Amino acid sequence: MSLDSLKAAVPDHAKDLRLNLGSVIGNSGLPAQQLWGTVLATAIASRSPIVLHELEPEAKANLTPEAYTAAKSAAAVMAMNNVFYRTRHLLSDHEYGNLRAGLRMNVIGNHGVDRADFELWCFAVSAVNGCGSCLDSHEQVLRKAGVQRDVVQEAFKIAAVIHAVGVTLDAEAVLAK
């Protein structure tokens, strides 16, 4: 199971995705931990069993046990936060913003990896899940930590491509039945 297997599974009508997948992962300028944590977190967020099955072993091989767990934690906590904060943002009654969230999210402060890496993974998951509030919040933290815009953009490029590959391969699996 690998990136090559996943690329080979992409149908010809989506060959741009195949090329982009090879580019955003194979030619990324991100350090290995940032890259593979972003890949794992967005593969989980894509909700595609095919994508997760193919990319998880390679991510696990390229991450420390702490980073592997932290990337999964970023995907988990952002699955909750993205729904909560996106909903709060979309409601026309802005008074919800003044109410206490009351949700546990201790992992955001206690994840075991460099804070910028964890924030990048949360940001990338938020891109997949489409939460503008979370995107803004995590992007601001990243920028204040000195993370450059090209690194932030690299994370949402990875998120976009992994999500698109998941949508495409899952659709092909259904259509083949």
Walk me through the structure.
This protein is an all-alpha fold and 177 residues long. It has a single domain (3-175), classed as AhpD-like (Up-down Bundle). It has helices at residues 3-9, 15-26, 32-45, 49-62, 65-90, 115-129, 132-144, 149-175. Helix 1 (3-9) packs antiparallel against helix 2 (15-26), helix 2 (15-26) packs antiparallel against helix 8 (149-175) and helix 3 runs antiparallel to helix 4. Keywords: Antioxidant, Disulfide bond, Oxidoreductase, Peroxidase, Redox-active center. Its EC number is 1.11.1.28. Disulfide bonds join 131-134. Belongs to the AhpD family.
- H and E string: HHHHHHHH
Q: How many structural domains in the coordinates?
A: 1
Secondary structure: number of strands: 0
* Main CATH class: Mainly Alpha
**Strand residues, percent:** under 5%
Radius of gyration: 16 Å
Q: What is the mean pLDDT?
A: 95
**Shape designation:** globular
Summarize the structure.
By secondary structure, this protein is mostly helical.
What are the SSEs and their pairings?
Elements: H1 3-9, H2 15-26, H3 32-45, H4 49-62, H5 65-90, H6 115-129, H7 132-144, H8 149-175
Family: Belongs to the AhpD family.
Function: Antioxidant protein with alkyl hydroperoxidase activity. Required for the reduction of the AhpC active site cysteine residues and for the regeneration of the AhpC enzyme activity.
Active site: 131 (proton donor), 134 (cysteine sulfenic acid (-soh) intermediate)
